[in-house]
Design brief:
Order of helices and strands: EHEEHHHEHEEEHEEH
Number of domains: 1
Catalytic activity: N,N-dimethyl-1,4-phenylenediamine + anthranilate + 2 NAD(+) = 2-(4-dimethylaminophenyl)diazenylbenzoate + 2 NADH + 2 H(+); 2 a quinone + NADH + H(+) = 2 a 1,4-benzosemiquinone + NAD(+)
CATH class: Alpha Beta
Organism: Xaviernesmea rhizosphaerae
Distance between the termini: 7 Å
CATH architecture: 3-Layer(aba) Sandwich
Bound molecules: flavin mononucleotide
CATH superfamily: Flavodoxin domain
CATH topology: Rossmann fold
Subunit structure: Homodimer.
Cofactor: FMN
Protein name: FMN dependent NADH:quinone oxidoreductase
Structural class: alpha/beta
């Protein structure tokens, strides 16, 4: 990678399974993919800074009535209780604002992302912080507030096959749109899907560990430049 200034990487794991497939019994494939991705990335860019977020093991609080009242109140008019309600959201949104590269491990649960990951999305989509809104604005009343140049990599795993474009279940795949649409709304528009993989069928592990799975895992290394999103350098 040509750039020598450190980048901030934000890996987010969201599987409810704590272990890694191939290493731990009933381990998570997306956790293995994201670990592999970050390890490979850091081998090439040791100077980069990683801030890890595990929403699968520590789910963010879902949005509540108090949260909404606080988030849509101008910051200078929030009371102490409202500031407390937003503290976790402030932290999560701050991590997203600081990140140059966001790497999300996203299992498919019932065609979409896990509730834990949806809770993260709901906490980082914040008016006045990550997107702007002004009804009186001519044209589009919403605008993205994330600094330009950020990149999103989605690493997915699911049990069934046929979710890719043209596949038999393509219209049922809500994982990628469920991440790309809200994050593009904030300004994160470059989002290659690097690690999609059908690994399990009817709850039975199909290809885990080395052997048949290994070519795919080594693909991650060759796909890293895709995270540049068509640029020559970061
Ligand atoms: C609650 C739950 C719901 C799931 N729903 C789907 C589904 O709708 N479609 C599918 O193909 N696989 C589904 N699966 C299989 C998972 O996508 C698959 O096991 C994947 O590897 C999970 O990610 P992980 O290995 O990182 O935990 C589901 C698994 C669980 C536990």
């Amino acid at each position: 990678m040509p750039s020598s200034s450190p980048l901030h990487i934000l890996p987010i794991d969201s599987s409810a399974r704590a272990g890694l497939s191939g290493r731990d019994r009933h381990g998570s494939h997306t956790r293995r993919l994201s670990r592999r991705f970050i390890d490979t990335w850091m081998e090439q860019r040791m100077m980069d800074v990683v801030t890890y977020r595990d929403v699968g093991q520590k789910p963010p609080q879902p949005v509540s009535g108090d949260w909404i009242a606080a988030a849509f109140r101008p910051p200078e008019r929030r009371n102490a209780a409202q500031q407390t309600v937003l503290a976790e959201s402030d932290q999560l949104a701050g991590e997203l604002l600081a990140a140059d590269l966001v790497v999300i491990g996203a299992p498919m649960y019932n065609f979409g992302v896990p509730a834990q990951l949806k809770a993260w999305i709901d906490n980082v989509v914040r008016v006045g912080v990550t997107f702007g809104f002004d009804r009186a604005r001519p044209g589009e009343p919403y605008w993205p507030m994330l600094p330009t140049g950020k990149r999103l990599v989605i690493l997915t795993a699911r049990g069934d096959y046929g979710y890719d474009e043209g596949g038999r279940l393509a219209s049922s795949n809500l994982v990628e749109a469920g991440l790309k649409v809200p994050l593009a709304y904030l300004g994160l528009t470059c989002s290659p899907i690097l690690g999609q993989r059908e690994l399990e069928s009817s709850g039975v592990m199909a290809q885990v560990g080395g052997g048949a799975d290994e070519p795919f895992m080594s693909e991650i290394g060759t796909l890293l430049p895709m995270a540049l999103c068509g640029r020559n350098s970061l």
